[in-house]
Amino acid sequence: MLNNPELKRLIDELWNKFWSGGIANPLTAIEQITYLIFMKRIDDLDLEKQQRAEFADEDYHSIFDGVFPEASEDGQEDKVIRVAKETLRWSHFKNISPNDKKLEHIQSFVFPFIKALNGETAHFTKHMKNAVFIIPSPSLLDEAISTIEAIFAEMRKDSNQHQDIQGDVYEMLLNEIASAGKNGQFRTPRHIIQLLVELINPSEKDKVGDPACGIGGFLLGAYQHVLEHIDLSLLGDKEKELLDSQYQGYDIDVTMVRLGLMNMMMHGIDNPNIDYMDTLSKKFDHGELGTYDVILANPPFTGNLNKGEIDDTLSLSTTKTELLFIERIHTMLRNGGTAGVIIPQGVLFGTAKAFQ
After folding, report:
1. CA atoms within 13 A on the CB side of 99
2. Residues 31 and 169 in one domain
3. What's the pLDDT tens digit per position in 54-106?
4. Backbone dihedral region of 119: left (phi > 0), alpha (psi from -120 to 50 degrees) or beta?
């Protein structure tokens, strides 16, 4: 997909619209674009599930059934304005006219709805609490929706490609950031993720972690690898929930956490486990130590940390992140566990005591 010139043109177009529309911070632009992609993706997934249920003559309860916000539990009338959840679908609101009403509808109802999608106690809800929808103008919103529709249509042309739509869009946007001379996050290329996942070959029983997961590429790669070897349709709700709970990620950037949560949800994990945490710091949950069967990671090797902030359970006498992350990964693995980690070559050839 990354070699598709029309797709590249559409991504360039989307990026330029946000840049000229007043959202100049690259990561903010990516976050806002991802919210829109997420809105479209959850509508598409829900419609697919609905069609499968109808084909199998099974009951299906759509996430778009009922009203939003839901009525208060005490049953008393209040003055809250409610709308049918069906109006919160991408396929509905994309056609709202004029554009200022479309923007108002998304700001007032659609975005609050997706923020609370998984219930009050979910990781997604917790980390979306302070998220804001800041597309500034009705015209930019309408143009972005049209371009995203075109992106999805272009991707659907290649029916044999396993589509990681958000991943492709995100990777292309990162390329735009790099070409614009901006500092950005870096997504591990998919073929590298696939290589490490195939080497480790995780099973559906393995607990898989990533202590610096970004948008969740390794977790998603492991999950999709497992799905290739089991029949998801044979899993009951509890078995599916147990499978989904086997994947845990952490990241130090709350924007990455949100993007990672949405990425996992767009690929079928209904209630993903990605948390905001510095896994090298004293705040790391020590209950996670020695509990993982598999760790897959491409941690950020950013130099040295403040010695006073490093978790006391890390024993290496160093402040270098490339060494501390390897020790952290080692401590997170259970006995007999396996890790696939991308490291700078200096780790293998450094002669200082901490490297040895």
Report:
1. 12
2. yes
3. 988 888 999 999 999 986 665 555 678 999 999 999 999 999 999 999 999 99
4. left
Mind listing the pLDDT tens digit for each residue in 227-271? 999 988 788 889 999 999 999 999 998 988 998 898 888 888 989
Strand, helix or coil for residue 228: coil
Question: Where among 154, 179, 204 does a domain terminate?
Answer: 179
* One domain for residues 134 and 248: no
Amino acid at position 294, single letter: V
pTM of the full structure? 0.85
How far, in Å, CA of 88 to CA of 68, rounded? 9
Question: Which residues form the domain of 263?
Answer: 190-349
Domain-embedded: residue 56? yes
Q: List alpha helices for the chain, DSSP H.
A: 5-20, 26-55, 90-93, 99-105, 111-115, 123-128, 138-156, 165-179, 190-200, 217-227, 237-244, 254-266, 321-332, 346-349
Q: Total structural domains in the chain?
A: 2
Same domain, 65 and 150: yes
Phi and psi at 248, nearest 5°, equal: -130, 125
